[in-house]
Amino acid sequence: MKKIEAVLKEYFQAWNDGFFSKNGEEIRTFMAKNFIGYWSHSGLDKPDQYSYDYDLDAVLQQYGDAQKSFESGSITARNNGKEYLVLGREINLINGDPYPAQCMFVWRKEGEEWKLVREYIELER
Fold first, then answer.
1. So what's the pLDDT on residue 2?
2. Half-sphere exposure in the Cβ direction for 93 (13 Å, CA)
3. Which of 51, 48, 17 is closest to 31 using CA atoms?
4. What are the residues whose beta carbons fall under 8 Å from the beta carbon of 123, sequence distance 6 or more?
5. Mapping DSSP to helix (H, G, I), strand (E, B) and coil, where does residue 109 land?
6. Domain ranges for the chain
7. What is the topology classification, in CATH, of domain 4-123?
8. Beta-sheet pairing, 31-40 with 113-123
9. How far is CA 45 from CA 42, 86, 96, in A?
10. d(Cα 50, Cα 27) in Å, to the nearest integer?
11. How much is the pLDDT for 64?
12. In whole angstroms, what separates CA 11 from the centre of its chain?
């Protein structure tokens, strides 16, 4: 079983590969079938919600030159090590402009793989 830190690195690399190829299938391989995500910023009253089968390719098409990075603030095992709660800061560099966000990810062991079950992303802007 891979360590969660290695999985996080691979997950964000999949996003960077997707920004280049405009294909989201590699990203989706990290998600649980029951994945749910929330994305918001200061101008929204409630976050946008998305799930496993949202159109990742359309999301990737919205960005020209883009890259993601992630710095974890804390990684907490729970449920006897079958889940991890990861808090941190993501920075999307889009056409040279940084878009930082605070993030929380819930990863769960499914068989021999870690799968992303939930994510909460709140832009700092």
1. 83
2. 8
3. 51
4. 39, 40, 41, 42, 99, 100, 101
5. strand
6. 4-123
7. Nuclear Transport Factor 2; Chain: A, (3.10.450)
8. parallel
9. 8, 25, 28
10. 14
11. 86
12. 7
DSSP string, 6-48: HHHHHHHHHHHHHHHH---HHHHTTEEEEEEEEEE-TT-SS-E
Query: What 3-state DSSP class applies to 4?
Result: helix
How far apart CA 71 and CA 104 sit, in angstroms, is 11
pLDDT tens, 22-80? 999 999 999 999 999 999 999 999 999 999 999 999 999 999 899 999 999 999 999 99
Distance CA(116)–CA(31), nearest Å, equals 5
Give the position of tokens 């804390």. Answer: 74
Per-residue pLDDT at 1 exceeds 80:
no
Contacting residues for 35 by C-beta, under 8 A, at least 6 apart: 51, 52, 115, 116, 117, 118, 119
Distances (CA, A) of 32 to 44, 78, 89, 92, 110: 27, 17, 22, 23, 8
